[in-house]
Q: What sequence folds into this?
């Protein structure tokens, strides 16, 4: 007999290939493809978002990637549970396991097959999403003004890094408050009342009291009364340093206010911000049109295919006094960064839903100030302002000030505030986002394979779907349990503590699927860092999926495949 | 490796107890089973439903773990992957993937044995031809009838040219052609030195092909031994000859009476239904009647045959050979019986006796055909008269060993002939 044996990779490939074919033949892939095509065909026309092109694309990316993740997650769980449990109930294993095929090879091969299928479907789906998104981007007729087109370029088709606003430092304030209370002799009374009210020991009561004082101080430090301002100091803003250069034509000479009109490429117009800096060179005969040297002005108006910029009188004299209309110039724009924030405030039936908010961004080194005059901003909704990078010093520092022009108090929580800036390409980010989804699917496949190797199809599905739900709702559950947690000794408190312990165990066993499978990186245009990506790969696949697969192999190895139920 | 002398499969005190969910003992499927299956033998596990045959086989295959006792297959544990490269298994039903076609199925299992593409293709072609599924090899198995699924199941069991073939209820669902072909295959594999374990409750299958059998009941071994040893009724002698008229029968009776024997039964032997069926199918094939199912199949795949087997003949020639062999089996006895009707060698007074016995029936001229032969059964009275018996046999056969005696002795003559 010439048959060889003992090449594990060959057997793994054979089983994986067989699994792939099996899934295709059982029409799972076909059903998925039909649902996906229907989704991609309908979503762009059904989902308009906030009516802007950026909103439409953002909504499309959000719904389409979520739909793909959900469909694939369900498919993968059903398939992976059904493959091994189906082989056992269908007794296909009786033949398979009498071949020179180790049981671990069978289990891992099945997993690989599901991953291959999920990967193929994911690649197809993401390719379709990418092409559709690019198609939508090209629909400039749907864009509402240059600001909309600019948002598409800088906020969606971008990979931006996010720097969270630093939390308010309330330590000194709380320390002073405690000292004051102690000086007044009121501190011990407050602790006593906490001990009585919550049934706590003295140290626990003091901790709880200090925690509440900190929350109160933080809330106070992030609220601005009418006419008052709030300040933050951002550090480490390492934006990509490329400037944008484009040709332009003087559409109008300098007027009496020192404003010059320049027609330029739409792509350049999309990169300029109102009140942001712009360089125009080559207007003077002595300048070369291709030279970046020129006058720096402030953009005061943006229009389709051009802009108006205000220059100092000296610059007007030096560069534009003799420049004829139609003169070729070069236009240079800096990269921009976006600040995302949310105004919080109690819903007051007597107050309008909008607040007048102004922003000031200062370069702490050269004191360049970019000011955004007061404008109406809806409370409790995320908003974005675009900031020129001139406001950031070479060390990546930027001071930000919010001025409350409304007659009501406004709160801006640092947790709701972050600065985003382009740091990488959209395509790589898109691929990484897909890979994160694939990692989640690899984990789900491992979970399904484990459930299928240990239990029947019904029990395996039940177990897998419960774990899928916990993995997806991990953040919600954590918040819910932490909010309801009570340090007391009541039965409810005990239940919360038990739930907390169980959730801690689940956090170790399960990845946070909402941050991998349902990630918002594409929607937010946030860059997926290699650190985050590597850790997600290591923990989701390298540790958690590997543990489940090892358990599956162990269980299946010890299982009597021809067991008779009596 | 213990191909030559040592037992291929050894079980010692093999016991399997099935338990319920609460681990309470429910059924003792196999109890204290001691087996030693030798190389090159066809071993049958016999027993009624629930007697423990399949459970024993599945423990040998490592699909069930013994509660007590030990098993060694090729000197290793049954779960050892290395041993499985030398085993072929056909379960009681064809648990194959319904979404694959026959060719894909065999290709898949061939891959598990790390056969290269050319080798896989060669074996797949031969096996499909052998089991008669070449013309429907691109239909998915889910569309196959049960018998066709058994055929493809058999093919997958042979994809690795196994040293040990384990078959569980092999002919259930198979048509008579497939059944006959399967039995011929077992004979051929045994001739090549393969070991076969066969579990069945179809006694005819076991009797036709097995060297030794173990009869199980209630999970316990009730009998173990060679088929001939267990089945041969030592107290009777059976002769088959051309049809005799009453006068000849009276004379035979007289001869026997002189030796203290009597005729126990006079009957015309019946043709086996299997042979009749095969002949009808052959006629239909000769008439080129179309069929959408399995064809009769080709000969044993070349890679399964011995070095002296020559080239694999074409499918049609092979089935004709198979059918001819099948009909020859039934007529062999008659042909052998007809042979003495030719002028017998003059060996003494016994010649006269035998001539006198057969000539009046005109047997030689009539040839061997259905219903022309009659079977005489004489009772063997006592061991002390064995010599007298031998004399009578010598008288009836002209004093020479009867060349047809082996044919009359049992239906496994084809296997014996094949091995010689």
A:
């Amino acid at each position: 007999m010439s048959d060889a044996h003992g090449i594990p990779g060959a057997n793994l490939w054979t089983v994986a290939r067989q699994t792939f074919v099996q899934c295709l033949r059982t029409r799972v892939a076909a059903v998925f493809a039909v649902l996906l095509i229907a989704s991609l065909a309908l979503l762009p026309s059904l989902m308009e978002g906030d009516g802007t092109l950026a909103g439409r694309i953002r909504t499309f990316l959000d719904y389409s990637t979520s739909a793909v993740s959900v469909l694939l997650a369900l498919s993968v769980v059903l398939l992976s549970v059904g493959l091994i449990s189906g082989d056992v109930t269908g007794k296909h294993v009786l033949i398979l396991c009498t071949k020179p095929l180790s049981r671990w090879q069978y289990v891992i091969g099945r997993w690989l097959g599901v991953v291959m299928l999920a990967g193929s479907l994911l690649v197809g789906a993401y390719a379709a999403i990418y092409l559709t998104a690019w198609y939508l981007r090209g629909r400039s007729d749907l864009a509402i003004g240059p600001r909309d087109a600019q948002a598409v370029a800088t906020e969606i088709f971008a990979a931006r890094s996010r720097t969270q606003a630093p939390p308010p430092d309330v330590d000194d304030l709380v320390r002073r408050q405690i000292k004051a209370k102690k000086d007044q002799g009121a501190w011990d009374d407050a602790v006593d009342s906490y001990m009585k009210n919550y049934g706590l020991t003295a140290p626990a009561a003091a901790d709880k009291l200090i925690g509440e004082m900190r929350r109160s101080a933080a809330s106070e430090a992030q609220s601005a009364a009418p006419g008052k301002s709030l300040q933050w100091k951002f550090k480490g803003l390492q934006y990509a340093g490329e400037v944008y250069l484009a040709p332009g034509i003087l559409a109008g000479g300098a007027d009496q206010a020192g404003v010059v009109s320049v027609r330029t490429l739409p792509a350049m117009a999309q990169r300029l911000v109102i009140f942001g800096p712009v360089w125009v060179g080559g207007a003077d005969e002595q300048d070369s049109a291709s030279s970046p040297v020129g006058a720096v002005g402030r953009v005061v108006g943006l229009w389709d295919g051009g802009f108006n910029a205000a220059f100092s009188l000296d610059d007007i004299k030096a560069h534009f006094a003799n420049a004829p209309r139609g003169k070729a110039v070069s236009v240079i724009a800096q990269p921009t960064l976006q600040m995302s924030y949310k105004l919080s405030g109690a819903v007051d039936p007597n107050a309008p839903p909008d607040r007048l908010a102004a922003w000031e961004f200062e370069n702490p080194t050269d004191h360049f100030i970019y000011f955004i005059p007061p404008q109406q901003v809806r409370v409790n909704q995320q908003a974005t302002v675009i900031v020129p990078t001139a406001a950031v010093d070479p060390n990546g520092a930027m001071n930000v000030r919010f001025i409350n022009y409304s007659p009501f108090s406004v709160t801006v929580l640092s947790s709701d505030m972050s600065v985003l800036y382009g740091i990488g390409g959209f395509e790589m980010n898109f691929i990484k986002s897909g890979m994160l989804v694939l990692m989640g699917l690899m984990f789900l496949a491992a979970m399904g394979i484990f459930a299928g190797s240990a239990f029947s199809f019904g029990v395996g599905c039940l177990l897998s779907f419960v774990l899928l739900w916990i993995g997806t709702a991990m953040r919600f559950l954590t918040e819910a349990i932490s909010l309801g947690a009570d340090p007391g000794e009541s039965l409810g408190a005990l239940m919360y503590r038990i739930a907390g312990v169980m959730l801690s165990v689940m956090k170790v066993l399960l990845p946070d699927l909402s941050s991998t499978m349902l990630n918002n990186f594409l929607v937010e245009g946030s860059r997926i860092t290699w650190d985050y990506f590597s850790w997600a790969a290591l923990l989701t696949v390298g540790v958690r999926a590997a543990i489940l697969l090892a358990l599956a192999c162990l269980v299946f190895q010890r299982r009597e495949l021809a067991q008779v139920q009596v | 490796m213990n191909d030559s002398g040592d037992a291929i499969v050894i079980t010692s005190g093999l016991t399997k107890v099935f338990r319920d969910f609460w681990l309470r003992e429910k059924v003792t499927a196999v109890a204290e089973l001691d087996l030693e299956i030798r190389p090159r033998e066809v071993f049958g596990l016999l027993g009624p439903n629930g007697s423990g045959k399949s459970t024993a086989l599945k423990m040998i295959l490592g699909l069930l773990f013994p509660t007590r006792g030990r098993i060694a297959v090729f000197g290793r544990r049954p779960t050892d992957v290395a041993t499985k490269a030398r085993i072929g298994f056909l379960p009681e039903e064809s648990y194959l993937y319904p979404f694959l076609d026959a060719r894909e199925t065999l290709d898949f299992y061939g891959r598990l044995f790390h056969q290269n593409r050319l080798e896989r293709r060669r074996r797949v072609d031969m096996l499909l031809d052998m089991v008669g599924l070449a013309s429907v090899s691109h239909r998915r198995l889910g569309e196959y009838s049960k018998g066709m699924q058994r055929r493809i199941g058999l093919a997958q069991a042979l994809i690795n040219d196994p040293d040990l073939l384990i078959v569980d209820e092999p002919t259930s669902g198979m048509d008579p052609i497939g059944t006959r072909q399967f039995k011929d295959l077992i004979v051929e594999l045994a001739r090549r030195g393969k070991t076969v374990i066969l579990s069945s409750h179809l006694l005819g299958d076991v009797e036709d092909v097995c060297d030794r059998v173990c009869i199980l009941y209630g999970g316990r071994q009730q009998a173990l031994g060679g088929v001939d040893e267990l089945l041969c009724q030592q107290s009777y002698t059976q002769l088959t000859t051309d049809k005799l008229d009453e006068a000849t029968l009276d004379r035979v009776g007289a001869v026997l009476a002189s030796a203290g024997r009597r005729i126990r039964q006079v009957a015309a032997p019946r043709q086996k239904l299997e042979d009749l069926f095969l002949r009808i199918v052959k006629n239909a094939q000769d008439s080129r009647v179309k069929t959408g199912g399995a064809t009769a199949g080709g000969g044993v795949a070349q890679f399964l045959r011995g070095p002296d087997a020559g080239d694999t003949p074409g499918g049609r020639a092979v089935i004709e050979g198979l059918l001819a062999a099948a009909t020859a089996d039934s007529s062999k006895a008659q042909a052998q019986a007809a042979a003495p009707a030719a002028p017998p060698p003059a060996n003494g007074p016994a010649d006269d006796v035998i001539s006198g016995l057969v000539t009046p029936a005109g047997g030689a001229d009539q040839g061997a055909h259905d219903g022309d032969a009659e079977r005489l059964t004489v009772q063997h009275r006592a061991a002390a008269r064995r010599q007298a018996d031998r004399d009578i046999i010598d008288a009836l056969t002209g004093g020479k060993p009867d060349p047809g005696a082996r044919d009359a002795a049992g239906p496994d003559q084809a296997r014996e002939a094949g091995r010689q």
In short: Confidence is low (pLDDT under 50) at residues 1-5 of chain A. The interface with chain B takes residues 1-7, 10-11, 14, 18, 21-22, 25-26, 90-102, 560-564, 566 of chain A (CB under 8 Å). Chain A has 18 helices and 16 strands.
